[in-house]
Amino acid sequence: MNWKQSFRVGGLVALMTISLVGCNSEASYSPQEIIDQALQETKELESYYGEYTMDIDETGGATVKEWMKDGKRRIEMSVDDDHVIAVNDGKQITTFSKKENKASIMTFENGELEELMGKSPKDSAQVLLNIVKDSHDISIAGEEKIAGRDAYHITAKAKKKNTLLGDIEVWIDKKTWLTLKTITTNAGNVTQQEYTKLEVNKKIDDALFAFDIPKGATIEQIDTLDQTAPTTIDEVKKQLGDFLILPEENGLTLSTILDMKVEERPEFSFEYEKDEQPAFSVSVFKVVSNFTTFGSNLANEEDIQVRGEKGTYMDLGELFVISWSENGYEYSIITENPELTKEEILAYAEEMTIVQ
Length: 356
What we know:
CATH architecture of the largest domain: Clam
Shape: globular
């Protein structure tokens, strides 16, 4: 997959709002044991109503009301001078900005929305644990009250500095395992989310999940997120010309070429395997005149040399991204195998040659 799609900071932060840990806080259990036990015993809530605040790096915030029932969700957010409503009815997501009088609709095929949003808090927690278990030190910091409810305070400290997913603190409701408060540090930015009110198993009218777009509003239909399509090397050459490609040698094979369907310019991703296992992907596109390198201001980037060119190295925990520009093209390599090292990927980059 394209590395920009792979690292979705917002998605990771959303995962942190799911139950992380366990059913008791006895000192005889380690944090990991508590987490594992909680994942076995957690029962899914049928419904809840909540109110919470969000603050991003002390520069701006929002107040949010949330209704959830049987996997459907409605969120109303007041931010700056706008009021935004987002409704997930199980088949599509509709967002409406009162200030702009504009609605956006994203429709999904059967099962796609469930997969995107996560099948359950338990499943999402397990995904998150796999992400942070090796890159963070997890500990129990105590018990506190949030929104009048008893909560465990859990900390996850990044083992390395300047990683994309930095230090994390979560406060977990002891009865429902919902996350009542989250503080995350990503690329130097601090985001805090905290419930001020939570009513669990509340009776919620189904009509809340059927949003009627106001008359006269502008309506935009948005394609679903995964709009990539397989393509051929000849098609890539036709659109990009003489770009660099990695030869298939020493057990390295090109498994798939994807057209990323980027509106602004053609972009393609080359998926490589090593010894029949996913290794890394290489994305490439022509640099346009108004192009700004993604993440050029992120604190977690390290300046490096790639093929004699100025590039960047971005640590994503177990995985990482190496990017650089060369002869009018932008290249990014994102690892898919945590055993690969920066030195190995730089060595692969040196082997790239002009496509024939």
